């Protein structure tokens, strides 16, 4: 997958989300709702991790584009929004900012290999239309096809070699999955992260 978009806009949206998300999102803090799901099948595995949180705008400095917010856990946060964030002028004190951040990884075993180790990256961006509240969705994906170099059943590890020659040890806890992997096979890994930001008008 190769999708091109404005890198600055993707970064701006990500920064807006990062300001609202708790610093330790993976530790299930009260500041956010965290959902984790894992599924496996012979030669396949997929896992996803989603964090949802909200913040309310408490102050706006139009000259500097600084926005102050109170997160749902009561913590005060502030940030300066770049020109890449559309429709800044529509923000109002009391508006509610909602953020959903998802990370996902999928592993697929290719028996016998045969493919050329490679890596592809892509990103996509959808921003709010003129006149709407700021927000949007950004997606980044990395796909890697790597060669299985060694299977260590005692350590429950598989060593794979990526397209740039780097070696990575993967922990495989499921003995049935480990039994199915042999040297010379290939593993395709797809990592994706997505962030969605929406702003709802202040309740009158």
Summarize the structure.
Helix content is 10%, strand content 51%. The protein has two helices and ten strands.
What does this structure look like?
With 204 residues, the chain is mainly β. The chain has one domain (7-200). It has helices at 7-20, 175-180, and strands at 33-41, 44-61, 66-71, 76-80, 96-110, 118-127, 136-152, 157-161, 167-171, 186-200. Strands 1, 2, 3, 4, 5, 6, 7, 8, 9 and 10 form a ten-stranded antiparallel sheet that branches. β2 (44-61) and β3 (66-71) form a beta hairpin. The protein is elongated, with a radius of gyration of 21 Å. The chain starts with 6 loop residues before the first helix and ends with a strand.
Note the gap between the termini.
44 Å
Biggest β-sheet description: 10 strands, antiparallel
Structural class: mainly beta
**Average pLDDT over all residues:** 84
Q: Helical residue percent? A: under 10%
Number of strands: 10
- Strand percentage lies at over 45%
With helices defined by DSSP (H or I, 4 residues minimum), what is the helix count? 2
Counting structural domains, the number is 1
Q: What order do the SSEs take from the amino end to the carboxyl end, as H and E?
A: HEEEEEEEEEHE
- C-alpha geometry: elongated
Low-confidence stretches: 1-11, 24-28
Q: Rg to the nearest angstrom?
A: 21 Å
